[in-house]
Amino acid sequence: MRYENIKCPHCDRVFTEEDDIVVCPQCATPHHRECYIELGKCANEHLHSEGFIWQKTEETAKPTETSKQTSWEGQLEGDEAENNSDFIKCPECGTKNKKNALICSNCANVLNSEIRQQFEPPRASSVFINGLPVDNEDFIDEEKTVSVKESICFIQKSKESYIKTFLDAKVSKRKPKFNFWAFFFGGYWFLFRKMYKPGFALIGINFALSIFSSAFMEKGFSKLLEFYVANAEEIASGAISTETANQIIALAKQCMQSDIFSTVMIVVIGVLSFLLSIFAGFKANEFYLNFIKDSVKKIRTITPNQGAYYTYLYAKGGVSYAMPILVSVAISYLTEIVASLPLM
């Protein structure tokens, strides 16, 4: 069969007599040899499962202006047309998309080459534990939901540490170990790891506890606070006189005795805040493992091929530096606003 005047499905250039043409062994779609090698598969591979067979029709064989040009002229015009076109061709399936599209409308593959390089699936033996490579096909959980390869792509930052934690928990059949980052930073660590629901919940509870603590402090220790404000310069300098120190101790005792309820509530709130930090530390890694599993399951259902799957996995995973910072700033402003209100 002759293929002159027919377009290559990968580059959209018309075949000429001088072109080196190969056909797909399954569906007979013709390609330039270099296009087939570059693509690594048939441009119509996504149609193979439907039993697609390429056929030469009057439409595909219709002569065009491009076919009258020499091979190098066709190449030049094709490149110019591609650069000036309002469309961009997907390297995965060959579908034309709008020029500013980031993801293919047919297969969800990333169209921007720079972004696509960042989203490439991890290679084998990219994680080492105790100097030994971890099998990327192994699973990090007992239910065999998430592979090491998938977790590498999703976790990204500090992946070795978390994968080791999850594998150790799987082998020992215990809960993942204590997370000191979550203990010290609470909800902000959860936001950093993109677990927004538990993150906002912990921050909200801590914010409420701090507001109540401030209210009881203002009610029961108002005289002590006034004394601190009046002697702020001396106290800040660190050179506190014996007389000032004795006054502070006396006022503290007086305040605690005069309003025992406020004193007790301040202590209770402090204990609750500490217990909340303990809870975050013990449950953080367990929450994170469940978050990874839920995310992987969801992404599997919405991505049609492996390239798109790892693209989404990489984009949805990783960490967020902006969210904890923005929330921290917002909490600071809210604290100032609430502090200016008469609470009690």
List the helices and strands and how they pair.
Layout: E1 21-23, E2 30-32, H1 33-39, H2 71-84, E3 87-89, E4 96-98, H3 113-118, E5 128-129, E6 132-133, H4 148-155, H5 159-172, H6 180-185, H7 187-192, H8 196-220, H9 222-230, H10 232-237, H11 242-258, H12 260-302, H13 306-316, H14 322-339
Antiparallel strand pairs: 1-2, 3-4, 5-6
Helix pairs in contact: 4-5, 4-13, 8-12, 9-11, 12-13
Q: What proportion of the residues form beta strands (DSSP E)?
A: under 5%
Unreliable parts: 63-84
Rounded radius of gyration (Å): 32 Å
Structural class: mainly alpha
Question: Could you provide a short overview of the structure?
Answer:
The protein is mainly alpha-helical and 344 residues long. It is built from 14 helices and six strands.
Can you walk through the features of this model?
The protein is mainly alpha-helical and 344 residues long. The protein has helices spanning 33-39, 71-84, 113-118, 148-155, 159-172, 180-185, 187-192, 196-220, 222-230, 232-237, 242-258, 260-302, 306-316, 322-339, and strands at 21-23, 30-32, 87-89, 96-98, 128-129, 132-133. 55% of the residues lie in helices and 5% in strands. A hairpin with a 6-residue loop joins strand 3 and strand 4. Helix 4 packs across helix 5 (159-172) and helix 4 (148-155) packs across helix 13 (306-316). The protein is elongated and about 105 Å long. The termini are far apart. Mean pLDDT is 79; it is low at 63-84.
